[in-house]
Amino acid sequence: MTNGDPSTDDDRQTGLVTYSRTLLAPAELARRDRAYAALTEAVRELCDAQLRTEVDLEEVGAVAAEVRAVTARLLTSARERSFGIELGHDGGAREHGNAVLGLRNPFACAVGARAMFWDDRGARATLELGALYEGPPGCVHGGVLALVFDQLFTEAAAAVGQVGMTAELTVAYRRPIPLGTVTVDAWLEVVDGRKRRMHATCHDGDGNLTAEAEALLVLPRWLEGSDAIWPKRPPVDALDGDVSLDPSVT
Ligand SMILES: CCCCCCCCCC(=O)SCCNC(=O)CCNC(=O)[C@H](O)C(C)(C)COP(=O)(O)OP(=O)(O)OC[C@H]1O[C@@H](n2cnc3c(N)ncnc32)[C@H](O)[C@@H]1OP(=O)(O)O
Q1: CATH no. for 109-240
Q2: What is the interface pTM, i.e. ipTM, of the complex?
Q3: How far apart are the CA of 162 and the centre of ligand 1, in A?
Q4: Best residue among 87, 148, 184, 218 to mutate for probing ligand 1, ranked by most atoms within 8 Å of CB
Q5: What letters, b where the CB count within 10 A reaches 16 and e where it falls short, cover 103-137?
Q6: Residues 145, 211: contact at Cβ < 8 Å?
Q7: C-alpha closest to that of 232 among 249, 247, 217
Q8: Tell me: the pLDDT tens digits for 46-55?
Q9: Where are the beta strands (DSSP E) in the chain?
Q10: Residue 79: CB partners within 8 Å, gap ≥ 6?
Q11: Does residue 148 contact residue 170 with C-beta atoms inside 8 Å?
């Protein structure tokens, strides 16, 4: 079924999820992923630069005009809807718009070597949360951390084959989290029918425990026994080897 995007077709609907399917050959898809990943990284750098710049006001005005011109160029051809979930050639799910780990989302912080990784207990990520993620002065915004935990919990549940969506999320902020490196871990504690009880921790760059979180994930009724395809991530072991590995590029 055509959806107005020349590079994909809508493939099927599973409950709330519309899966689109790429129409591009594997090499072309990989080439596009690399190009869009580079654009996303450039825009992320731009966002950080515009936040921190101290150039004079005339230059600020000139840059604003240039950025608007660049935006107009990108919009000469753009999809109307969000990215959703696209199926790649290996059948894997590509969620490039995701707010935490989307390959094409400049706000996403869990990308490239900073992505989320799975092991047989759950999921882990080591992130760089810089000035764009500030809440208390010099510290990570509490809502940003909740966002990261929300994604991490669904990752951890999927890593152990117990997928679900977040029904409840509780965060205990134990100490301010300095901007910079944070490491988050999440794991499954209890399964009770469609309910999964999860736990997570956040450590700052000095190894201090800064926050803990608990979540109830529920396997939605519409997903039970369905053919839904959940995204997969590389193993934590991969971090010991090629840390430039970008799991989103398949
Ligand atoms: C396929 C690829 C998908 C990729 C997903 C990526 C996710 C990224 C991370 C997220 O952003 S998750 C998004 C935030 N979460 C949501 O949008 C979830 C919104 N809520 C729902 O969709 C439904 O309410 C939910 C799926 C959580 C439950 O609906 P159901 O109709 O399947 O469950 P039901 O009402 O039958 O309840 C099942 C059990 O869970 C319990 N339950 C459900 N919601 C609860 C709740 N909020 N608090 C406590 N218990 C809850 C409920 O009491 C019951 O317990 P018992 O079995 O003991 O009776």
Answers
A1: 3.10.129.10
A2: 0.95
A3: 13
A4: 218
A5: bbbbbbbbbbebbbbbbeebbbbbbebbebbebee
A6: yes
A7: 247
A8: 999 999 999 9
A9: 8-14, 17-22, 85-87, 93-94, 116-118, 122-129, 165-173, 180-192, 195-204, 209-218
A10: 4, 5
A11: no
- Rounded CA-CA distance 45/244 in Å is 18
Between the CA of 144 and the centroid of ligand 1 the distance, in Å, is 21
Mean pLDDT by 10 residues, the chain (250 residues): 63 73 87 94 96 98 98 94 82 87 94 85 95 97 98 95 96 98 97 98 97 97 81 75 41
pTM assigned to the model: 0.90
Ligand 1 binding pocket (C-beta < 6 A) is 17, 150-151, 154, 165-168, 193-195, 216, 218, 220-221, 228, 230
Write the residue with the smallest CA distance to atom 47 of ligand 1: 167
Q: Residue ranges per domain, the chain? A: 109-240
Task: State the distance from the centre of ligand 1 to the C-alpha of 47, rounded, in angstroms.
Answer: 34
Question: Kindly report the CA angle at 197 between 146 and 126, in degrees rounded to 5?
Answer: 40
For 1, the token pair is: 């079924």
Around Cβ 92, how many Cβ atoms within 10 Å? 15
Nearest atom in ligand 1 to the alpha carbon of residue 93 is 2
DSSP 3-state of 235: strand
Ligand 1, atom 4: closest residue by C-alpha = 230
Q: Provide the CA 167 distance to its chain's centre, in angstroms.
A: 19
Residues in the chain: 250
Whose CA is closest to atom 31 on ligand 1? 221
